[in-house]
Structures are given as structure tokens and as C-alpha cells.
Amino acid sequence: MAPSFSKFLRHRVLPVTTLLGIGYASPKILFLLLLLGIATAVYVGRLLYRVYKNGTQWQNPENPEKENWEKCVLAKYFPTIKGRIGWTSLGDFPTKVIEGTITLETGETRKIQVKREDLNSEKYGGNKVRSLEYLLGSTQHMKGEELTVLGGTGSNQIVATAVHSGRTVRSVYMSEEAPDRDNALNILSVLSFPTTLTLPYAGMSHRFDFISKLKNSLNTNEPVFFPGGAQPVGVLGNASAALELADQIKCNSAKPITDIFLPWGSGCTSAGICLGIALSRFLNMGVWSDGNIPVIRPVFIHDKGAAVEKRAGIMSYFLKRLVRDATDILISLGCVDDSVKTDALEIASNIKATLYYGERYGNPKYGGHSAHSKNGKKIMETMVPEPSPPLWMCGCFTAKASAVMVDFLESNPSRDVLFWQTKSAVQPVRENGEGEGEWDRLERQHASIKNYVSENIKDKDEYKKVVSKL
Asked: Is the pLDDT of residue 211 over 60?
């Protein structure tokens, strides 16, 4: 065995054997363990690919006649999709665009617009409602009462699914996150609904449990949602939002824009905006012709996502895959032609993303605030007229994007910026009457979950003031 490879095994794989309690192992055993790790990764990757591919196939609605298609934003522009694609009404659209002035640290002021996606549902709003209209609508016919959702600890996608699905949700928290009150609130929201928690990050037995349950769900035709709802049918919901924005600019209920800032978690919302802009051009709406297409400026909120993007461009590849597969659904329905795909992919290629986790932006951990995101939140709170209800600048998502937007505005005062408010304005908790509540269920969870909540929410009275009972 080559000395360099043997050194790699000892320095990279030997620590794993120590954690597993194996102790010293020869290079041959280390090599076998490495092969086992690779095989496991490939196997899980194939399972996740099956999850993603389901998102290209879930097109047939179970009872299309029972849906109020007049509320479907996409059907307004493409009426032929009615009854031919899975969709269910969850939100109230269009969401308004507001304008205000923020004050920078220098004392200078800048005007911004905000697309208030956070207000699209009184139960629980945000960008996830858009994608869930298609994800849930397309999976109504699938078997089982349980629905599996993948996400990070405190995922907004998991909360939205628990609130809107009406099913028991298997919440899979794929990774740990930095301390953050807003994510702890999301955990409690999920626990107030019928749910089971799976924590692949909590140890080897939990990883095998996750793999087993994921395989079983796929084999029994139970719905499984990708992190962030990043599946092609989910992209269609966010494309609707961009079409809606084009209409608002055309009708003067919003002003023309040059840049759009938003968080980049899974990439589903950014992919939808790319497709939506291309669809508006296909429909000749007269808003975004050549030369004045807004620059989409998503901000990475995950350190690992930023790392794989920086090293290999994997996240950009995945975003373009989402755009391509979502457009193919519309092509198969006879709504558009290949020119839309070409245009949408060109728009996606011109995205200007910020890899948030650099020297400039501090905190290298997924989930919580950094000093810079706290500053972005503080500056957004200077906005006048004051937004009502207030914009929720969470440490995991919106505050990070706002910090980058503020930096941009400091050096680009003439740009017409729009902020895509993705975090819900309300924090929902299900009313359980005299029955078991979220705090009771918390006591039965893994120690990592209990500790995360207790460390970030120390005052239950303050908690009660924040949440909204459903």
C-alpha cells in the first residue's frame, strides 16, 4: 500500500475507528472501513436521488375538481394546467410589495422594497407555502398518513409542512445548528403537531434508523420532501411569485427593480425566481426585457453549502437542475417551449451569490446569528414607514441576506433593491387544550434537542408572547 495513502488512512480514517470503539486498526482494516463509508454514502445518495426524482413525477392531482383553481397563481397565466397538475390552495396571493427607507450605520439612507411572502398565510407564511401548494397537491394520492420532510434543526420547511399538511410529519433534522432562538421556536412549533423526530446527526444508530425509514417510505409510496422543498414541482410555486411580481410592477403596485436579495438554503426559491422571470418574458409582460433583468443575489446560509459551491459549484449545478426539470414539467403540459428553458438557465447562470461564510461575514456555523447578521437585522429595524406586522429577521435565514444587502447598498446607492422576505411573520403552535403540549413532548426527545431548546429559550412567559395559537 502506497505510503501516502497509508498516511491518509491513519490520519483521516483512524480517528473514526477510535470513535467507534475499535481502537488501533491495520491499514487494511482502515481501507475496508473507508470502502464501507463510501458505499454507505453512495447508497444514501441513491435514496436521496429517488426522493428528488419523485418531485419530477408527482403531477397528477387526485381530485382536481375540488380545488379552487381561481386561486392558483400559475393557472392565471397558463389556464391549461387546471386539473392536470397537483396543486392545492394554501396561501393568500398576491403578497404585497412595500417600500421603505432604511438608515445605514453612516447615517445615510436608502430606499428598498420588500416582497412580503411572510404574509401569505395567517397560519404560517413564507416562501415554503408556495412550494407546498404543489408538493402537497401532487402527493394527495400517495399512501400513508405519515409524510417525511428533510431539513436542518429548526427547519422552516418542516414547520410549514406540519402546519399545512394535515398529516403526521416525520421530521428529519439532518444537521445540528448554531444556537438560535428562532430555530428553537421552530422545534417547539413542530412538536405541537403530530410528529416524530429523526436525528441522523445524533449517532450511528440514528443514521441507520434514518436510512431504514427513508427506504421504507420510498418503497411504500409515502411522500418524502427534500430539504427546503427543493423538488421541481416546488419550484413552480416560487416561479408563480416572480410572475406575480412582474404583474405588480406592470400595474405600478411595485416599482421597477435592479436587484433581488434573498437567502439561499436549498435554492428552490432562487430557482423559481429564475423560471418566473423567464416565463414573464415568454408571456411578453413588458417588464423584464433584454437589458433590464434584475440580478438575483442569493446569500448562502449554510457553511457546508457555501463550501461545496466554492470548491465545485455543486449548489449552482443543483439550482440549474431544478430550473431545467421544473421547466420540463411545463413543456410536457404544453404551456411553454424550449426557449423558456434556455432563457431560465441563462438567468440562473448570471446569479450573483454570496458565500456568506467568509472573513467578512464571520460565523462559520449553520443556524445562528453572526455579529454581521445582527447588524443587518438592526438596520432593517430602522425601516420607515415601519412594516406592519414587523419583518422577522431570523438568524438562520433573513438576517444573513439583509446583512449582505446592506453592504451592497452602502457602495451602490443608485440600485433599486427588493428584499424577498421568506421568514413567516407568525410563529404557530397548535392548541392542544388539556392534552399533551409541545413542552411535554420535548421531554421525550433526544438530549441534543432538549438542550438546544432549553439553551435558546429560557423564559416560557416570553415564549408565550411570541407564538400564535392555531
From this structure: yes
